[in-house]
Amino acid sequence: MKRPHCLSATILERLATSSPDEYEDERASYTTNERKPFDGQFHIARKVAALWNEEDDVTRAKLLIAFGYGENYVRKTRQFVGELTDIKESSTFTGEQIREITEFIESYEREHLPDGDEIWEVQAHIEFTNLVRSTLGLPPYEVKEE
Questions:
Q1: 66/85 Cα distance (integer angstroms)
Q2: How far apart are CA 113 and CA 16, in angstroms?
Q3: Stretch 77-90: mean pLDDT
Q4: What proportion of the chain, given as a percentage, has pLDDT over 90?
Q5: pLDDT bucket at 32, cuts 50 / 70 / 90
Q6: How far apart are the first and last CA of the chain?
Q7: Cα(42)–Cα(45) distance, integer angstroms
Q8: In whole angstroms, what separates CA 9 from the centre of its chain?
Q9: Which region holds residue 144: left if phi is over 0, alpha if psi is between -120 and 50, else beta?
Q10: pLDDT number for residue 96
Q11: Which residues pair with 100 in a beta bridge?
Q12: Are 84 and 64 in contact, with CB atoms under 8 Å apart?
């Protein structure tokens, strides 16, 4: 399901890097109040364009989840839940597709949760993974004792 966005896809794609290996504009790593046109390219624009342009719902769900984990989407929970809910409600996922998405989430959890030196970071990742799980109707993530 394509939804209109306030930012033109053409403009977004012009701002996008072509790959993760491509040089990213230095302004991607800091914030400023300086008003200056964007003439560089940014990884975040590439990620958003890929998400907007993806037509397969399973792949879109996985891209959105990966985007959320990678960009600490936990701070934007209402927007994330809305996007993931739209994908879920506009699709009729088969049992196999739900399994594929679940395996994707569990793979991330095995590799990255809990991760980080800061307790707030670990908690933010666990909150985010539980948000993803609850939105998709999956049981919550459980921290395994070692």
A1: 16
A2: 29
A3: 79
A4: 5
A5: confident
A6: 43
A7: 5
A8: 18
A9: beta
A10: 93
A11: none
A12: yes
Measure Cα distances from 21 to 24, 40, 54, 71, 92 in Å: 9, 15, 21, 17, 35
- Give me the residues paired with residue 42 across strands: 16
In three-state form (DSSP H/G/I as H, E/B as E, the rest C), the secondary structure along 64-98 is HHHHHHHCCHHHHHHHHHHHHHHHHHHCCCCHHHH
Q: Tens digit of pLDDT for each residue in 103-124?
A: 998 888 777 665 556 777 777 7
Tokens of 131: 């948000």
**Amino acid type, 139:** P
Q: What is the pTM of this model?
A: 0.71
Tokens of 45: 């624009």
Element (H, E) at 122: helix 119-135
pLDDT of residue 100: 93
The predicted pLDDT at position 78 comes to 67
Sequence-distant (≥ 6) Cβ neighbours of residue 9 within 8 angstroms: 49, 52, 53
CB neighbourhood size of 65 (10 A) = 23
Is-contact 128 74, C-beta < 8 A?
yes
